[in-house]
Amino acid sequence: MTHKEKTTGGHLSPAKKILAITAIRSDYDLMSGLYRLLDKDPDTDLQLLVAGAHLSAAYGNSVGLIKKDGFTILMEIESLISADSPKSRLKSASILLQNAIDVVARWQPELIIYAGDREDVLIGGLLGAFLAIPTVHFFGGDHSKDGHTDTVIRHATSKLSTFHVVSAEQHKQRLIKLGEAPERIAVTGSIALDKFIEASHAPAQDIHSIAPQGKQLDQYAMLIFHPVDQEKQQAAAIFEAILLTLKKSGIPAIVSYPNTDPGNHLIIEKIKQYEHDPHFWFYTNLERSTFLSLYRQARFLIGNSSSGILEAASIPLAVINVGLRQKGRYCEGNVLFCETGADAIEAAITQAISPEFQSSVKKINNPYGAGNSCTQAFTVLKTTDFAGMLKKTEDPLDL
Length: 399
Known about the structure:
Blueprint: E1 5-8, E2 11-14, E3 16-22, H1 25-40, E4 44-51, H2 63-69, E5 73-77, H3 86-107, E6 111-115, H4 119-131, E7 135-138, H5 149-160, E8 163-166, H6 169-177, E9 185-187, H7 194-199, H8 207-210, E10 221-224, H9 235-248, E11 253-256, H10 264-274, E12 280-283, H11 288-297, E13 300-303, H12 306-310, E14 318-322, E15 335-338, H13 342-352, H14 355-361, H15 373-383
Parallel strand pairs: 3-4, 3-6, 4-5, 6-7, 7-8, 8-9, 10-11, 10-13, 11-12, 13-14, 14-15
Antiparallel strand pairs: 1-2
Helix pairs in contact: 1-15, 3-4, 4-5, 9-10, 9-13
């Protein structure tokens, strides 16, 4: 395997080795802008450990997007147990850990980076802690009051991590409350936003040239809905209620497949039931430029995706968040929260498409950044002495 080298004093020396862990399309999309900056840097040898849903046909084999983007893959680990249960997520995490230990120890990266709140970031934190490799956790300090397991996984990973790149000052303050030293935290804004800012200036793609034949998608909404622990048994009913309410309102939808959370198979069964309906286009993965173009042209976003909290304000786009997921997260006035019944969903749709609400949405600014966060995060990774911060000797009582 070849690695980048840099010239120092007329001699070649290895570039700094950074390992990025990615196990699902959502975290890859969040981080891809930063990956590009690191990959282009001659003094950085970025390689990716690719696992989980990326290697699953059921979730679109999104490893293909990584390869198309041209990033070096250190190893592919088939870790996903697609059993749709709480046990399967834990078992998938154990498979990732078992298979990653020797690979990571052998390559000896100088830094491990990971993003978000799923079980794979917890594995990244464990690898760094036990193998004495500095780690950087992205998107720490966020918090949702929906009771979903991912929130506590996010906070636990922060405690395992050497350093934090966070999206907002509120997130920094929450990490400090968790006992993290302020010098271990950099606020850059959300690195996921940069591509949304760029997309707002790109020519829009023609929906009719992209969509499958026979779909009637004029004036469409985007629908992204993932199951959450407390609503797992109702997930399919909630998802169907959104579909039928959109159809009743005369609004077609471009609909994402769910992620790998327990309860996803119930939603997939509903997708199979409606996949031939001309008012709905269901997709597993889309090219990033295509997704961003479709997202930008939508009337609104509906479901419960974190994209509605973090990214939609950069378009700006009205958002309807249905149910418990994302409740309590810091967001702008473009987001409407509603209950899961058809009447509540219909009322939220009526409000979201009203001229008054649409006018208010156009006036908002995204509190998570202005589109230059990747460059800020890149500078943090390039200039911070993470090795000198590896030992977390601070007593939270002294902070």
